[in-house]
Amino acid sequence: MHEMGIANSVLEAVRTEMRRYPGSYPCKVGVRIGEMAAVDQDALRFCFDAIILETDLASLELAIEFCPRRHRCQVCGREFVVRDYDSRCPQCVSLETTCISGDELELAYLEVEEYGSSTVGAKSTQ
Amino acid sequence: MDRVPLERKVLSENDRIAAELRARFQEHGVLCLNLISSPGSGKTSLLERTLESLPRHDRVAVLTGDIQTENDANRLKRFHFPVKQITTGGTCHLDARMIERHLADWPLEDLDLLFIENVGNLVCPSSYDLGEAAKVVVLSVTEGEDKPLKYPSIFFKSDLMVLNKIDLLPYVPFDINAAAENARKVHPGMEIVKVSCLTGNGLHEWMMWLGERRRAHKALLQATVS
Question: Which residues of B touch A24 (CB under 8 A)?
Fold first, then answer.
């Protein structure tokens, strides 16, 4: 259960980034989580919602993009999604394939809105 | 509404410290191994058997992590190598900052090999880089051969799987070939050694792997220097 620490790190990153946008507030933070990252999406959402509750970031939305494990074949170059741990190339059946994604635990983007430009999710504290 | 790309690791602060640790280990020629398993698989026993068989003058040290107690450090101190306990107080994994803090008064130039025994947990430790050269996962035969499929991340990220407690194989329904196959499904080409820390069976294979890693690490450092 390290999702609380991860939720905290996401929030810290948002706060750091927001220093560059005075007069704006964050609406949505995009996070990429790989299949092999050992992070539970539901637990992360639960922790994230718990730590933003009743703070100035209470309306911040967490968008999670799930990244399946992908391999590239060393022989024929085919890129494919690994299913049921079968990492053989579906094209040439080679076992020489290397992992190219699926291990992500990354901050992808932040959506910011200027105070007063929209009423949706905007804060009254300006 | 503006969308700003962030494009960095969520645990970038941990990764930054881990990268600093890795650079320091490199600078001082220290091979650092991060041992990870479920609670009770035998990480401490493996370290006991390892320290017991290393020459007294060997430049080896251990950082051992647990939520509470100094028990593991006390077990490992008997072998007269530097050992330090990290008690996390509740955190289910070690992070790079804990390693940095506990290494602060250890001169790395006096070390060639550093073992980090992580908190017993197959999930969370896999997300935290500690600056190690390799992760080693320990699985015991009482746990079930499908563990690599249930907890793929750590098997995917570990260079070696130590299959421990093989002395219990006659008494438990554990298919050792299926365990190896499952580990290699998750991590094709993964190295596997089968040991019993109780009887000593198979430990020479582990020591050979360790010796080979130490030689390779030294060779790599010399190549970098020259």
Answer: 2
